[in-house]
Design brief:
InterPro entries: LipA_acyltrans. One of its GO terms (cellular component) is plasma membrane. This is Lipid A biosynthesis lauroyl acyltransferase. One of its GO terms (molecular function) is acyltransferase activity. The protein is built from eleven helices and nine strands. It has 287 residues and is α/β, with parallel strands linked by helices. The chain has a domain of 187 residues. The strands form two sheets. Strands 1-9-8-2-5-3-4 form a seven-stranded mixed β-sheet, with helices on both faces. It has a two-stranded antiparallel ribbon with strand order 6-7. Helix 1 packs across helix 4, helix 3 crosses helix 4 and helix 4 packs across helix 8. The relative contact order is 0.17.
Length: 287
């Protein structure tokens, strides 16, 4: 039933989906005060507008992101590609292709990262492996796998086995996607405390480690959601700043880059995500 529901939603035209995203965003704002307050708190930490209008817009964009998942999972590749009307920075991809480099593609929980990843997968001449944290709901995990593992798309879980899979793909000159603002689980990988909008946040070290593999080009990308259901714009840019192998330094470089992207599209960041949580088993930091 869940698969049928996702397939039904995937056929709804994007302008209608985004219209309902705006309506349901009001519901989220008024009916889920815990999420509303978390969004307002995180916007304030980021020193971004956190008034009612701003929080409401974040709620609406968050709902739109959820409604776009069936589109990313079940629409045909050519239909997804047609949703991207603007592409900026493709020359950075092309430069990596011309030098036979592996591609480490980093994207925060910002904009429509699943649709943007599917678009990239279809345009690249080799497989793209996306790292993801399997959801606790088994049925939803099956849908995610069904939607992402198709064409040239592959997935790798956020554990040691998945990391080995990602490294192998990069060394083979393929592409991988990692969400660098994912809070690392102590059982899944290494993390260090680094500032995120001025507040300590447990930050994965995996992204910076992967970026320093020989013959790999690291790029950030964001799938910007255009207004009124008009589609998307893909933005691609190199990592800003230099990594030196020091975990703390490199984690801060990654966070600095994420902050820069969020400031460009603040309402499209998943501010309901608990970026500052302290996972069980991790010693707390002193601010």
């Amino acid at each position: 039933m869940l698969i049928l529901l996702f397939k039904f939603i995937s056929r709804i035209p994007l302008p209608i989906l985004h219209f309902w995203g705006n309506i349901l965003g009001y519901v989220m704002y008024y009916a889920v005060p815990r999420e509303r307050n978390k969004i307002a708190e995180n916007l304030q930490i980021a020193q971004l507008p956190h008034d009612k209008k701003s929080v409401l817009h974040v709620c609406q964009e968050t709902i739109k992101g959820g409604l776009e998942l069936p589109v990313a999972f079940f629409r045909q590749p050519e239909e997804i590609s047609a949703l991207f009307h603007e592409v900026y920075g493709w020359e950075h991809i092309q430069a990596a292709l011309s030098q036979n480099q592996g591609l480490l593609l980093l994207t925060p929980h910002l904009g429509s990262y699943d649709l943007a990843g599917r678009y990239l997968s279809e345009r690249l001449p080799f497989p793209l492996t996306a790292m993801y944290k399997p959801p606790q709901i088994k049925a939803f995990n099956e849908i995610m796998q069904l939607g992402r593992v198709r064409g040239k798309g592959k997935t790798a879980p956020t554990n040691l086995q998945g990391v080995k899979q990602i490294i192998k793909a990069l060394r083979a000159g393929e592409a991988t996607i990692v969400l660098p603002d994912h809070v690392p689980d102590p059982a899944e990988g290494d993390g260090v405390w680094a500032h995120f909008f001025g507040k300590p946040a447990l930050t994965m070290t995996l992204a910076s480690k992967l970026a320093q593999i020989n013959h790999v080009r690291t790029l950030f990308f964001v799938g910007e959601r255009l207004t009124n259901g008009r589609g998307f714009a893909l933005h691609i840019a190199p990592l800003s700043g230099s990594l030196n192998g020091n975990k703390q330094h490199d984690a801060q470089i990654i966070n600095n880059n994420i902050e820069q992207w969020i400031r460009r599209f603040p309402e499209q960041y998943l501010f309901a995500y608990n970026r500052f949580k302290n996972p069980t088993g991790v010693p707390p930091t002193v601010e």
